Amino acid sequence: MKRKTTSTSVNVCSAFPHLDQTSLVHLLKTVRLLRLLRLLQKLDCYSQYSAVVLTLLMSVFVLLAHWMACIWYVIGRKEIESSDPVTWDIGWLQELGKRLETPYINTTMGGPSIPSAYIASLYFTLSSLTSVGFGNVCANTDAEKIFSICIMLIGGEFITEELMN
């Protein structure tokens, strides 16, 4: 009996029909982050040195803030693309565009540049994670508020964990 051979990438692609090839490749690249676990095991013997521990904690904090900033941007972008008349005009990305005098005309035109939006979302996540929260970039819609609550809980847990150790 002859076995039918298929490519692994074809099997993976068929498992996720809503993803295109490029986003699937980027998704699979995130698996490389599991190598950090091996690095953490090797760094365990250096945990007695406070500079190593501080650098490691800051790296984790920056990585966490980056991921949260990316999620915050995606939430704002999805609300603009949804064209919901209730939430379309009040989202954080829409408000940022108005303040920078580059408002969104429709879902594809206008708005702040990608670097400007990323800096604003990173600023929001860092101020929320550190429990400062100035309020100049704020959550207006329900999805944004739910995510903000999650950021505040994660930030509180992170700070509490560090104070306890």
UniProtKB/TrEMBL annotation:
Residue ranges of domain Ion transport in the record: 20-155
Gene3D superfamilies: 1.10.287.70
Transmembrane region(s): 49-75
Membrane topology reported for the UniProt record: Multi-pass membrane protein
Superkingdom in the source lineage: Eukaryota
Keywords for this protein: Membrane, Transmembrane, Transmembrane helix
Subcellular location: Membrane
Keyword Membrane tagged: yes
InterPro entries recorded: Ion_trans_dom (IPR005821), K_chnl_volt-dep_EAG/ELK/ERG (IPR003938), KCNH_animal-type (IPR050818)
Main location: membrane
Protein name, entry field: Potassium voltage-gated channel subfamily H member 4
Lineage of the species this protein comes from: Eukaryota, Metazoa, Chordata, Craniata, Vertebrata
